[in-house]
Design brief:
The complex is a heterodimer.
Chain A: H1 2-8, H2 20-24, H3 29-57, H4 68-104, H5 112-134, H6 148-152, H7 157-184, H8 197-228, H9 242-276, H10 283-296, H11 312-340, H12 349-372, H13 374-380, H14 384-414, H15 420-447, H16 461-491
Helix pairs in contact in A: 3-4, 3-5, 3-16, 4-5, 4-7, 4-8, 4-9, 4-14, 5-7, 7-8, 8-9, 8-10, 9-10, 9-11, 9-12, 9-14, 10-11, 11-12, 12-14, 12-15, 14-15, 15-16
Chain B: H1 2-36, H2 38-45, H3 50-75, H4 79-110, H5 125-161, H6 171-195
Helix pairs in contact in B: 1-5, 1-6, 2-5, 3-4, 3-6, 4-5, 5-6
Chain lengths: 539, 204
């Protein structure tokens, strides 16, 4: 019957128009979110292939697979692809774009055209940067330290720098768009302290994007001008100071870590409240800890420079401030744990990813304190200890958090469920593979294996083989979601508007949502996590 | 409409904050090196033409005035005045850039362009090269912002000619005004920092 057919396939943002042009010229935040998802996934695959090459090379002590010069280009490509094109955009641009206006009860972000422009700027920056990698690569590491980057290196530093400069504008425009959206587009009754914590996290992230990204943009531009136009900013022969570059670079690039981790933390808060069927413990503490991380995150950058020549007094101050920034992170972790306490914990796939996040982020955060203390940092600086530490934060924290959020909102994005067992298997594989890959690296680093070398003494081989084996498991763990989520997109069973019985405005509209999100303007009358007022309708 | 205007204005202010941070990187480098090399800074600064710099400062402040008058005219439904003040703003901006061009050309003729062919007679030649690198980067970036301003202003002027603005809606003129004032303010900082280092007793 035609009526049931119409009822079975209502108009959604996915099927309203299906031409390629309707996607490429869309101003719909939901479509832009999906376009970011495909783009970021592509970058992730590229970055992962380079990671695989690194691990293959390090399976044996001799530098037999890649020459040292190729190895430099491979780890630079891995870092550049992962940092600038995966970790920074993954949660804000994919999940944030999709759910932020829905959470606010708005039709779209404040500036929809600007949002589409951000995506095109991102594509342009990614094309330029990746072409630098394809045309022979860059060998400076993702940090572009002068004087090597300004005159030592003969690789495509300029092109990669220009690409990253362009990509920065995409990040700035998204941050600006989100800030204005959160200020101006909230539904009636949606006061600041009724906002979901994911929105607070996105707000804090946007603040960093807006304040930090321009600084790295000018810094990269200064390197480009020094390399190309021979202006002298960091040239020691003129009396310039390469360490000044490090200060300017880390002024953005340390807060950038919080761009990577804050939005996943926000997603974790959503998932943990929903699957514990409880209000989040200490809502305002979790909200303000996001803001505190954004602010304190700007005051710790010089802990990257402890051994590069700064005065002992400023080193002590930065060490202390780095300890201070751990406090709001700990506040979040304790509050999540307290939310679990006596919750009716519902073991569905998003929650398994959350547990993975909690374990890995904890290790990553605590080892951050090791590296923040002056004495230990001198021992472990530029060793595999540091590599392991930041992978625990960025991959164990940010990517685990992204997958938690993705599995949570997937039914809303696509209107379909995925195979729960496959998703749980994937979460477990990632957790196991990740620990096997990176925990041995703590030990390697402590024993003194430096980062960025393609060969090492034979006594380090056992730990390195463990790490390479773990990377293989990790790869399977990441491939699985690509398969079962793709299957779910086309063939998964219908999810209904609210499969998790979650609070939040995004769950009050249909799945997938209408082209303009809501049939009627939603009005908010209560806080974000009133799970105690809801009945659990599943066994 | 009012809500959209408020959102756009907030967006513009946030954008200007990013601009402050963007120039902030260069100002930080300037600050560090000025503390390290005060003599070279004084020596480098004396190479800049204080009269042209002062003239340009006056021109740019004048263009901010005409810009403010353009905004006022748009808000009060004076279409011809809006167009007139916008064009005056662009003319003043052009005067600034022409003067700047001759300043750059003079530096070029003297061999004061940083790089392999840099030529400077003085005790602190290499630190003066850092000063001049910052001079070219800061004023060059400022000039680039003015060129972008011309693009914006041209679009706004065309809109004004077509009678798109009224007391109901003049947001684009206001936003262009904010941007132009920002570019002006950057120069207000650049002029003393670059031209007026240790100039007491060394006038001209």
């Amino acid at each position: 019957m035609s009526t049931t057919a119409a009822a079975a396939s209502p108009v959604t943002y996915l099927n309203e128009k299906t031409t390629v042009a309707s996607w490429l010229l869309t101003k719909d935040h939901k479509r832009i979110g999906l376009m970011y998802m495909l783009t970021v996934t592509l970058a992730f695959v590229v970055g992962a292939v380079f990671a695989g090459l690194i691990r293959l090379e390090l399976a044996t002590p001799a530098g037999d697979l890649l020459s040292s010069d190729t190895y430099n280009r491979v780890f630079t490509a891995h870092g550049v692809a992962m940092v600038f094109f995966v970790l920074i955009p993954v949660v804000p641009a994919v999940l944030g774009n999709f759910v932020l206006p829905l959470m606010l009860g708005a039709k779209d972000v404040a500036f929809p055209k600007l949002n589409l422009l951000s995506w095109y700027v991102f594509i342009l920056g990614m094309t330029v940067t990746f072409s630098a990698i394809v045309m022979g690569g860059v060998d400076t590491g993702w940090t572009f330290y002068p004087p090597f980057s300004t005159e030592g290196s003969d690789s495509n530093v300029m092109l990669a720098g220009v690409g990253i400069f362009i990509t920065g504008f995409s990040s700035i425009l998204t941050g600006l768009n989100f800030m204005v959206t959160i200020h101006r587009m909230r539904a009636p009754g949606l006061t600041w302290f009724r906002l979901p914590l994911f929105v607070w996290a996105l707000y804090a992230t946007s603040l960093i994007q807006v304040l930090g990204t321009p600084v790295v943009a000018i810094t990269v531009l200064m390197v480009a001008l020094e390399r190309f136009a021979h202006l002298g900013f960091f040239d020691p022969r003129l009396g310039g100071d390469p360490v000044l570059f490090q200060h300017l670079f880390w002024f953005y690039s340390h807060p950038a870590v919080y761009i990577m981790i804050l939005p996943p933390m926000g997603a974790i808060s959503e998932v943990i409240a929903c699957f514990s069927r409880k209000n989040i413990f200490g809502y305002s503490f979790v909200a303000f800890s996001s803001m505190a991380i954004a602010v304190f995150g700007f005051l710790v950058w010089a802990h990257h420079i402890f051994v590069a020549g700064i005065s002992p007094y400023s080193a002590m101050v930065f060490s202390f401030l780095t300890y201070a920034v751990a406090v709001p992170s700990a506040v979040k972790t304790f509050n999540w744990t307290a939310t679990l306490y006596r919750g009716a914990i519902w073991m569905r796939a998003p929650m398994i990813w959350v547990f993975g996040f909690l374990g890995l982020f904890l290790v990553g955060g605590l080892t951050g304190l090791f590296t923040a203390s002056l004495g230990i940092d001198i021992h472990i600086h530029d060793t595999y200890f540091v590599v392991a530490h930041f992978h625990y934060i960025m991959v164990g924290g940010a990517i685990m958090g992204y997958f938690a959020g993705l599995h949570f909102w997937w039914p809303k994005m696509t209107g379909r469920m995925y195979n729960d067992t496959a998703a749980k298997t994937s979460a477990v594989l990632v957790f196991v593979g990740f620990n096997l890959t990176f925990f041995p690296q703590f030990i390697l680093g402590y024993l003194g294996m430096p980062r960025r070398y393609h060969m090492y003494p034979p006594e380090f081989q056992v730990l390195n083989v463990m790490s390479t084996g773990g990377a293989a498991i990790l790869a399977v763990g990441y491939l699985l979601p690509m398969i079962y989520l793709t299957y779910s997109f086309f063939k998964g069973e219908q999810a209904g508007s609210n499969p998790w019985m979650a609070t939040g405005l995004e769950w009050t509209t249909q799945s997938p949502p209408l082209p303009h999100n809501f049939a009627d303007q939603p009005v908010v009358t209560e806080g974000a996590y009133e799970y105690s007022k809801r009945e659990m309708k599943v066994a | 409409m009012a809500q959209q205007a408020e959102a756009s204005t907030l967006g513009m202010w946030i954008f200007l904050v990013t601009e402050v941070m963007f120039f902030g990187g260069l100002f930080t480098a300037y600050l560090i090196y000025r503390i390290w090399y005060p003599e070279a800074w004084a020596e480098g600064s004396r190479e800049l033409d204080i009269q042209l710099g002062a003239f340009n400062t006056a021109v740019l402040i004048g263009s901010s005035l005409t810009m403010a008058l353009a905004v006022r005219a748009a808000q009060t439904n004076k279409q011809r005045a809006t167009v007139g003040w916008l064009i005056s703003t662009m003319v003043l901006g052009l005067v600034f850039l022409v003067v700047k061009f001759f300043e750059y050309k003079h530096k070029y003729d003297l061999g004061h362009i940083p790089g392999p062919n840099f030529h400077f007679e003085g005790v602190h030649a290499s630190q003066v090269e850092i000063f001049l690198s910052l001079y070219f980067a800061m004023t060059g970036l400022h000039a680039l912002h003015m060129l972008i301003g011309f693009g914006i202003m041209t679009a706004i002027t065309i809109m004004a000619v077509r009678g798109r603005f009224s007391s109901e809606w003049s947001t684009p003129v206001e936003l262009a005004g904010l941007y132009w004032h920002f570019v002006d303010i950057v120069w207000i900082f650049l002029f003393p920092l670059l031209y007026l280092v240790d100039r007491a007793g060394h006038f001209a």
